[in-house]
Amino acid sequence: MKLFKFIFSKTFLVQLILAVVVLVALIFGALKYLDVTTNHNETIEVPDLSKFQLDIVDKKLEEMNLRREILDSASFNPKYPPFSVLDQVPKPGKRVKVNRKIYITLNPSGYIDVEIPQNLIRKTRRQVEPTLIALGFKIGKIIMRPDIAKGAILELRHKGETIEAGDFLQKSSTIDLVVGDGSLR
Q1: By CB neighbour count within 10 A (0-12 exposed, 13-18 middle, 19+ buried), where does 113 fall?
Q2: Average pLDDT of 28-49?
Q3: Mean pLDDT of the chain
Q4: In a domain, 15, yes or no
Q5: Alpha-carbon separation of residue 133 from 57, 118, 130, 176, 185 (angstroms)
Q6: Domain boundary among 106, 125, 145
Q7: Residue 93 CA to chain centroid, in angstroms?
Q8: Structural domain of residue 137, as residue ranges?
Q9: Four-residue CA torsion sign, 20, 38, 91, 84
């Protein structure tokens, strides 16, 4: 009975009303503070930075009070100039707040060098071609040469020069295959 008497007492009700008023005031104050400090509804449009060099990107972003961070570039894209912007996050046209960081991915200076794998010589053309294509190389001319093994790879060439296992070539290079024609028996 004492609990019910206390809950309905004037002291408890005054304290409860006071606590609710303070809670509402704190929530209202916090929301107003967030409104002021977060620049609510004050946004700018992200510019399209693709194909621009880094110095031009820096000027554009500085004019708009934006910052940048460079992400590691994945692979070379020949349609874009070297060291130009390949991708950006957030995308162009999105609305962001002032001083937002724009994450950009740059195009490297060229294709990476890829090592010619071991054990390609004397393998069949059907085995070697997919291996080279999977590494990013292009298959050039097929040069037939007299040999006992029909369809076996005798040499790999790049621009007329013989290449060996362990040599490095730029990805997307064209490799000519010297293939045995099976004429020696």
Answers
A1: exposed
A2: 86
A3: 89
A4: no
A5: 36, 15, 5, 12, 31
A6: 106
A7: 19
A8: 113-180
A9: negative
